[in-house]
Amino acid sequence: MTQLAIKGGQRLREKPLPTRQTMCEAEKQAVIEVMDSGELSGFFGSPGAQWLGGPKVREFEDKWALTYGFKHAISVNSWTTGLTTAVGAVGIEPGDEVIVSPYTMSASATSILFYGGIPVFADIDPDTFNITATTIESRITPRTRAIMVVHIFGQAADMDPIMSLAKKHNLKVIEDGAQCPGIKYKGRPIGTIGDIGGFSLNYHKHIHTGEGGMLVTNDDKLALRCQLIRNHAENLIEDLGVDDLSNMLGSNYRLTELQAAIGCVQLDRVQGYLDHRKRLAAHFGRKLAEFDGITAAKVANGAEHAYYLYPIKFNAAKVGISRSNFVKAVNAELPPPNIWEQNGFVEAYVKPLYLAPMYQKKIALGSKGFPWTVNSDVNYDYSKGSCPVVERMHFEELIYTPLIREPLTEDDIDDFVAVIKKVLANKNQL
CA 18, 22, 24: angle at the middle one, nearest 5? Predict the structure, then answer.
């Protein structure tokens, strides 16, 4: 019997896993050029030629639109502000309900609250972890105005049935593609299957500018509304001849010239990153197939997966050890990660959003219960058990790994699989 590292034995792998570093000389030179120009931000928050930003911002937006076939690409300083902009652009008002996944980063839902809208959470599919037309439909009421589809972990949601449902009920569709730039659904790029969508440029995403986001749409009116919200709409709207004042209380969500310069360079590499992750994921999936009770990530028909993270379903009864003990034992066999990364497995993802204090107490904007008080006759149920599938996944079954990333190789994946084998072969120690 081999002693597990968590019980004092030697780690199976001592060699550090390679660190992800996507910044190269080309990014450095692009930044230097902007620095030398002296124009670190080209935006004016008033009418004039630069209300849409400086030359690098415009170049980055045009390049993104051309690369993926979007009519409009609108940069913002984070995907959180991008989501807020999208919600405002589609016209969400106080008391309007927006259906959203409970298994996503908090901003997907808080962006709805920002305009006084009310998040209504739909359960997820147990294989793809995305919301579906079936789970959405049961949440539609006369107050529903939009659906926010989150393509979680990087896999495209099943959009055709969702779009049919949205058309039937005259609902806007926002696509939160934070984790999946460049991904398609049945040959169509994620982001504009719905009315508006976009992507994160946060430092740990496929393509990044440190922080940032990119909104995309093929709708001219929505594009203009996004551009206005991004840059002090109240100062510009009269001069542009826009008469729809709803949600035209703008802000400063602008990307800098420095970030845009980095993005222009990064955009050239993202397809290579995606292809690399898909190869690693395919290799990992084949290896996982030999383990009973450990189910590899499923890719639905017609969907692509960006593998921002690699989700796995863990059946403790079949494996013969608890999820928590398995994750701890696996991670102990690998060298500690650097401060910015994770190695091995992570137990569960974010807690279902509706279980957060904000929703449990219905306190968000101010202290008097707004926006839920707008629909005072409605009892919004955020209690535990309201989305049973997501709770089962989170509290019992889901684990994920971030190790499906560049510059890891198939040899690194093989070491990871060997770790899993060692833990399972010695599970009686746990």
Answer: 115
